[in-house]
Amino acid sequence: MAVKVRVPATTANLGPGFDSLGMALQLYNEIELEIMDQGLQFEVTGAGADMIPATSENVIYKAVQYVFDQLGRRRPGLKLRAHNAVPVTRGLGSSATAIVGGLAAANELCGRPLSADDLLELAVAMEGHPDNVAAALFGGIVVSGKTGEKTRYVKLPVPQDLVCVVVVPEVPLATKDSRKVLPTSVPFSDAVHNVNRVGLLVGALATGDLETAGAAMDDVLHEPYRMSLIPGMDAAADAGRKAGALGVALSGSGPSLIAFCRAGDEEPVGPAMTQAWAGAGLAAHSMVLRPDLRGAQVIDIDASASLQPLTR
Ligand SMILES: Nc1ncnc2c1ncn2[C@@H]1O[C@H](COP(=O)(O)OP(=O)(O)OP(=O)(O)O)[C@@H](O)[C@H]1O
Ligand SMILES: N[C@@H](CCO)C(=O)O
Q1: Could you tell me the distance, in angstroms and rounded to a whole number, from the CA of residue 279 to the centre of ligand 1?
Q2: Ligand 1 pocket, 102 CB below 6 A?
């Protein structure tokens, strides 16, 4: 038996919503999983394939085993194929696609004993924070956080005229390194700033006020500290705003930037940002991406690759 799942890229934080806000994007990794009698066969192709171990150390494989362990089932032999379009260690949720994809594919192979909420809890346990994995699972814009033992999430409506420009520098930045530069405490006034911006941002997204959402994307909790790891980040963000973006933020832990644009205004934004980054000595490429509204999907291999939700 074989299953195939498709998982979207995600952009976390959206500026001020550190570890709390995430949005899925129309750029996808695909994972195919087949049970064998014994052993492990692995094939990784596409973006960043040379950076991803094709061994039992692979995050997809670990997620698959996690499901079998949680269900108390014997670990089977596996054939695993991953085809990636999401760049690795660029702040676009590549590791979240691996975690969510591995969990969802294993759950599918086992006959779907776990609900999407169960998968979220397992994904958060693996990733450590919920923003990317919640958006990858459910699609759209998701606010998420742990209250006690439970991970709660709220899906926000996605403004219809939102188009994103993602600008990806040609240098990796691992999340673990980008978290090391964060402070252990921040000034009260910075905390108040971000509380205000997250409130404005969530309210604006919920009511479709794109201009206010863009204006509320400025963050003082993590971006100022991470800037030291990403030369030219400020100049590239400024260039994006000048070229017509409503707001620009670091995507996840970086180094990519995400610009929120009103549909029709996006065209000059990517070139302006890549040019500004080139001026600071960093090569980058840009992509225009719409938000993904569906989240992780099972691809029915037998029915001309039609898409199905994870739970019935
Ligand atoms: N598509 C993938 N398949 C398997 N393993 C992956 C994949 N993407 C990332 N990983 C593993 O996860 C590790 C951590 O990735 P990391 O979280 O730094 O990058 P990211 O997910 O691209 O960034 P972010 O979480 O900021 O969006 C990588 O070093 C790699 O081992
Ligand atoms: N919220 C996370 C996203 C990256 O995984 C961070 O900014 O570190």
Answers
A1: 28
A2: no
Q: Do both 151 and 298 map to the same domain? A: yes
Distance 68 CA to ligand 1 centre (A): 22
Quick one: 195 exposed, middle or buried, by C-beta within 10 A (0-12, 13-18, 19+)? Answer: exposed
Which helix (H) or strand (E) segment is 150 a member of? strand 150-156
* Tens-place pLDDT, residues 102-147: 999 999 999 999 999 999 999 999 999 999 999 999 999 999 999 9
- Does 197 sit in the ligand 2 pocket, CB within 6 Å? no
Count of C-beta atoms within a 10 Å radius of residue 8: 31
Count of domains for the chain: 2
117 with 8, same domain: the answer is yes
Read off φ and ψ for residue 256, nearest 5 degrees.
Answer: -70, 155
What separation in Å is there between the alpha carbon of 220 and the centre of ligand 1? 25
Q: Which residue lies with its CA nearest to atom 6 of ligand 1?
A: 95
Residue nearest (by alpha carbon) to ligand 2 atom 7: 253
- Look up the ipTM and state it: 0.96
At residue 309 the predicted structure's pLDDT band, cuts being 50, 70 and 90, is: confident
Together in a domain, 10 and 138 = yes
The model's pLDDT over 71-81, given as tens digits with 9 standing for 90+, comes to 999 988 999 99
Residues 144 and 107 in one domain: yes
Q: Is the CB of 13 under 6 A from ligand 1?
A: no
Name the pTM for this structure.
0.95
- Segment 213-240, tens digit of pLDDT: 999 999 999 999 999 999 999 999 999 9
User: Does 260 contact ligand 2 (Cβ within 6 A)?
Assistant: no
DSSP 246-268: SEEEE-TTSS-EEEEEETTS-TT
Q: Is the CB of 252 under 6 A from ligand 2?
A: yes
Q: Are residues 47 and 188 in the same domain?
A: no
123 part of a folded domain = yes
